[in-house]
Amino acid sequence: MYFKEINTRIGLEGLPQSATCQTALFTGYKLYNTMECHIPGLPNKRLISIIYRTNLLQRLENRGLEIDFINAYHENYFKRRFNNLSLTTHLVLNLSKSHFYFLEDIKSGNAIFADITNEHLRKEGYNIDLSAKAQCKMQNEN
């Protein structure tokens, strides 16, 4: 495994934001060449086009590796965000063999939710166990 420190400002003005930082992380694209500032939350058309043009997962897939992005989605995600998908959702859409994972995949141990602990899902009323990490944290707090 290889780890490298990353400057989240990535050469752009303003507070680092998920759309621009995730684009830089998953593509290696030098955004300061084409953008003036960070884009918060959801990616704009320019960032989406960069993700579809080139990204790390696509490059690995093109080299013959089997790629699977195991982020799980709750069933309402696509109903709520049909025209406003996250950058990582666009990553999955761009892979030829990957598919979306849902809550049953978390329960069977084949996927994880974005917060890793499942606390967010439980707060939204979904019947799902806390992850082992979250259970451990709660035990240590008591």
Can you walk through the features of this model?
- By secondary structure, this protein is mainly alpha-helical.
- Helices cover 41% and strands 3% of the residues.
- The chain has 8 helices and 2 strands; from the N terminus they run H-H-H-E-H-H-E-H-H-H.
- The protein has helices spanning 18-27, 45-53, 56-62, 77-80, 87-94, 103-107, 119-123, 132-141, and strands spanning 72-73, 101-102.
- Strands 1-2 form a two-stranded parallel sheet.
- Helix 1 runs parallel beside helix 2 and helix 2 (45-53) packs parallel to helix 5.
- It starts with 17 loop residues before the first helix and ends with a helix.
- The model has no long low-confidence stretch (mean pLDDT 82).
Topology:
Layout: H1 18-27, H2 45-53, H3 56-62, E1 72-73, H4 77-80, H5 87-94, E2 101-102, H6 103-107, H7 119-123, H8 132-141
Parallel strand pairs: 1-2
Helix pairs in contact: 1-2, 2-5
How much of the sequence lies in strands comes to under 5%
The total count of helices amounts to: 8
Major beta sheet summary? 2 strands, parallel
* Multimeric state: single chain
Kindly state the percentage of residues in helix.
40-55%
- Unreliable stretches (pLDDT < 50, length at least 5) are none
Strand order of the largest sheet: 1-2
Mean pLDDT over the full residue set? 82
Gross morphology = globular
**Alpha-beta content class:** mainly alpha
Rounded radius of gyration (Å): 17 Å
